[in-house]
Amino acid sequence: MKRFNVVGSWPALVTPFTDRDEVNVESLRRLVQFHVENRSDGVLLMGSTGEAILLTAEERNRVIDAAIDEASGRVPIMVGVAAISTRQTIENARYAEDAGADCGLVVQPPYIKPTQAGLYNYFKDVADAVDLPLVIYNNPERCGVNVEPETVARLAQHPNIVAVKEAGPNPYGVMRMIELTRGEFNVLCCDCAFYALIPVVMASGGKGTSNVTGCLCPREFAELSKPWESYGDVLATREHLYRLLPLIRMLYSESNPVPLKAALNMVGADVGRPRRPLLELSDANVKTLRQTMERLGILNEDSYQRQFFSKR
Q1: Residue 1: predicted pLDDT
Q2: Which one of 95, 120, 137, 195 is the catalytic residue?
Q3: How many contiguous H segments (helices) and E segments (strands) does the chain have?
Q4: Does residue 264 contact residue 290 with C-beta atoms inside 8 Å?
């Protein structure tokens, strides 16, 4: 199997809901089309942003099928496939593979806190079971255990494991991964402002981001997430990062995807409320988020976000 090159900006899509708390397939299709038209390098389904853990199996499959159908090969689709058990993760990965996903995202199992040996075998067993290219998702804050750089380096030797998405407050861990893999394994990161990973990852030879803010500003994040090949790329990342930093902070002001859903609704994307037990964004943060988006011009009538979603 040809090694899939996960590079650039991969925004993590929300799962839109109707007023009756059902999956809104029409809104989901518009989100995918938005990223096709605005040059995202790929999109991620069923990540933390997609509230995957709060969906039924039938809902997950509806989201996967609709998004892949809408993309129609115009933008690559990454699908989060992780579950607590190895068996269920493999089943999820097989569904994504059969549905036509371009790659899968596998986070460490939450709650049970495996050892590093357990984590290695978990990722390896899934990679052995499918032909779908897989991305390791290291999210220790949500899962309670870190996938150590040495474990990532061992897994990077597997032909079916093509990249890692780092989402933890450990810039040194990123540098250690790249050191151990000699820069030959694709490393991406999340855009959480408080982890400050983007400058470290990109400066260390990383290949991009899987992000939240790119759901709202895909063009800017596509530029920000280009691997550095020249000083011009450095300046582009710096320019977009510091311009968007107030927005990035706000999109992580409460549990993801609560602020993002509020922001998308402000531009008319009609993604509905988060699913309980998540609550809607607090009034104080709604006010600050709106002010931040107004300062950045995102709420102007001629902004590309407002123009796109007003086409409904």
Answers
A1: 52
A2: 137
A3: 13, 8
A4: no
Whichever domain contains 198, its CATH number is 3.20.20.70
Query: Other CB atoms closer than 10 Å to residue 181's CB: what's the count?
Result: 20
165 is catalytic: yes
Contacts of 160 (CB under 8 A, 6+ apart): 1, 127, 128, 130, 131, 132, 133, 134
> What pLDDT score does 310 carry?
87
Q: Is the pLDDT of residue 296 over 70?
A: yes
Respond yes or no: is residue 137 known to be catalytic: yes
The catalytically annotated residue of 95, 122, 165, 226 is 165
Integer CA distances (angstroms), 217 to 250, 261, 311, in order:
14, 14, 18
pLDDT, tens digit, for every residue of 53-87? Answer: 999 999 999 999 999 999 999 999 999 999 999 99
What's the total number of domains in the chain?
Answer: 1
**Is 281 inside a domain boundary?**
no
Decide if 304 is inside a domain. Answer: no
